[in-house]
Specification:
Distance between the termini: 67 Å
CATH superfamily of the largest domain: Vaccinia Virus protein VP39
CATH class of the largest domain: Alpha Beta
Structural class: alpha/beta
Low-confidence stretches: none
Bound molecules: S-adenosylmethionine
Radius of gyration: 23 Å
Helix content: 40-55%
Strand content: 5-15%
Order of helices and strands: EEHHHHHEEHHHHHHHEHEHEEHEHHEE
Strand order of the largest sheet: 7-6-5-8-9-11-10
Number of helices: 17
């Protein structure tokens, strides 16, 4: 490893120039100009992830030319891409013109602990660029625009014509579930729980985490057929947890034909309220009194990362006509379904758990 000279510090938005401080009104205009060009940093991160720029740079500083050679791209445009990214804190250029990683650019590497590589691609998939321009319309009508743009609902499209987008979605959900699975395995109280179902549980990382923690626990993974078919290998035939798992393809808005001690519903009740009502109704129909229901969401009114949560909230409006919840809106839907809410607690820095019980009837 070569020791890098100190990286230049270029702040995102300068507050001074060589001729003195920048006035608040000039700063406001600068900031607004940056915001309206927000597509540029998003596209730059997407390009870097697609090209594998972060993966091509290790702990040894490299010039744009070196990196271009490794990636098989043109050096001058790559340098321009790197400078754009650097202005947002991804990569830094040293005084002798070498690029080094920053904490943020490392997260773009596929092999980084807590990698955001797949999530960066997912948040900037081609379909997102087709729905964002319709935001004013969605705000006017209160409805999603995805079916109008693509001719079918978001998940129908993803699993029929989504192609690479469906794979990117699965990989992004997998990396985010993997990270959350460890936190949840610590968080979830399994006292008195012999069976658990994860509704809309994706490839089953959260479920696998819980089953690994408690060798007596049995579990069901319910998700759309194409997702369940691609469940984590530990849960599939021959996998280490397969004998304690039922893989259940289905639509939780239609039915949840599972009796369990604990129902987990994580990051799924952020679609339209009618789908949430139907899902919670189906939980109530399937569960016995005393069963526990754990709804886990990122909240729009209590998040340390409000720019991320509010952006996701708007994207959910566009694609599934949905919304990120506030404590109040989630509590109201759970109460309407007849659930007895016991408490709301943070799981980690970005997720909250609503713990409820099915009352005696
Ligand atoms: C945002 S992902 C969350 C996945 C997982 N619970 C997690 O937190 O990592 C939403 C999940 O809901 C699933 N899903 C969407 N519509 C569904 C439906 N009608 N019935 C069951 N699952 C559904 C998707 O396939 C996807 O796995």
């Amino acid at each position: 490893m070569t020791t890098a000279p100190p990286a230049k510090t270029r702040t995102e938005t300068a507050t001074t120039t060589p001729t003195g401080p920048i006035s608040p009104s000039v700063q406001a205009a600068m900031r607004l100009r940056e915001i309206v060009f927000g597509a540029a940093p998003a596209a730059a991160v997407r390009a870097a992830a697609t090209l594998g720029v972060a993966d091509a740079l290790d702990d040894t500083p490299a010039t744009a030319e070196d990196l271009a050679g490794r990636l098989g791209v043109e050096p001058k445009p790559l340098r321009r891409l790197l400078l754009t990214l650097e202005s947002h804190g991804l990569f830094a250029e040293t005084d002798d013109g070498m690029f080094v990683h920053t904490e943020m650019s490392r997260l773009l590497r596929e092999d980084a602990p807590g990698s955001l590589h797949h999530i960066s691609l997912w948040c900037t998939e081609p379909w997102t660029w087709q729905v964002w321009p319709r935001l004013a319309e969605a705000v006017r009508t209160g409805s999603g625009v995805f079916p109008d743009v693509f001719g079918k609902s978001f998940f129908d499209y993803l699993h029929s014509e989504g192609g690479e987008s469906a794979r990117v979605f699965d990989r992004a959900m997998t990396s985010s579930s993997r990270q959350a699975a460890n936190d949840l395995a610590e968080f979830v109280d399994l006292t008195g729980v012999g069976s658990v179902v994860d509704i809309g549980g994706g490839q089953g990382f959260v479920l696998a985490g819980l089953l690994e923690r408690d060798p007596a626990l049995h579990g069901t993974l319910l998700d759309l057929p194409a997702v369940v078919a691609n469940a984590d290998s530990r849960l599939r035939d021959g996998g280490s947890l397969a004998d304690r798992v039922r893989l259940l393809p289905g639509d939780c808005r239609e039915a949840i034909p599972v009796r369990a001690d604990l129902y987990i519903i994580k990051n799924i009740l952020e679609w339209d309220d009618a789908s949430t009502r139907a899902t919670l109704r189906n939980v109530m129909a399937a569960a016995e009194p005393g069963a526990r229901v754990l709804v886990i969401e990122n909240l729009v009114d209590d998040s340390p990362s409000m720019r991320f949560t509010t952006a996701m909230d708007l994207l959910l409006l566009l694609n599934v006509g949905g919304a990120k919840h506030s404590k109040k809106s989630m509590t109201a839907l759970m109460a309407e379904a007849g659930l007895e809410l016991r408490d709301i607690r943070p799981v980690n820095s970005y997720l909250h758990a609503f713990q409820a019980v099915v009352p005696a009837r």
